[in-house]
Design goal:
The protein is α/β, with parallel strands linked by helices. The protein starts with about 25 loop residues before the first strand and ends with a strand. The model has no long low-confidence stretch (mean pLDDT about 80). The chain contains four helices and eight strands; from the N terminus they run E-H-E-H-E-E-H-E-E-H-E-E.
């Protein structure tokens, strides 16, 4: 397990997945870096989100009778000019898995929030500004977001395990305008 703080709990190469009889591979791999600043950062994003899952399935688990759930970003559903390195790496993984294995689902997540979220996204930025009694600056154009609480997202992912191979979106029923 590779943690975002750089610590390693257990290296994938040290784990023999063939000893498990599980027939499910849930790929939540996410090295989130939408704008890598160096070739190393670029390669880290691509390896973590595409190379590592492909390597684990191919070398360790094997794809026979394996249900694969690929967790992705809603950015993958947008046009190419709106893609980030992160969403492209998730698309590379999805394309590879779909081309090489039979039972693959892609579950696209929209904006998620929850406790201990420190990614400086809309919700935590607004809360920080409110607590500090500072003004909230909005962009010139209206921005519409779709946010879901992490517990709802986890429940939806768990429910996706019993669905047939396809593409699914996990999103709130409501879109929110930042101006509202």
């Amino acid at each position: 397990v590779y943690h975002s703080d750089g610590t390693v709990e257990r290296r994938a190469g040290d784990y023999d997945a063939r000893s498990s009889d599980s027939k499910l591979f849930l790929n939540i791999a996410a090295a989130y870096n939408p704008r890598p600043a160096s070739p190393k950062e670029l390669l880290d994003v691509i390896w973590s989100n595409a190379g590592l899952p492909a390597d684990l399935i191919g070398k360790q688990i094997g794809g026979d009778n394996l249900k694969i759930i690929q967790i992705g970003s809603y950015f993958q559903l947008l046009g190419l000019k709106h893609q980030s390195t992160y969403s492209l790496s998730k698309s590379i993984a999805a394309k590879y898995l779909e081309a090489n294995y039979d039972d693959v689902s892609c579950v696209y997540l929209f904006d998620t929030f929850g406790p201990n979220d420190d990614r400086k996204r809309v919700i935590d930025t607004f809360i920080t500004q409110i607590i500090a009694q500072k003004p909230i600056k909005l962009p010139a154009q209206d921005v519409v977001i779709n946010i879901s609480h992490v517990s709802d997202v986890c429940k939806a992912i768990m429910e996706s395990l019993s669905l047939p191979a396809s593409e699914y979106c996990v999103m709130s029923e409501d879109n929110l305008s930042l101006r509202d």
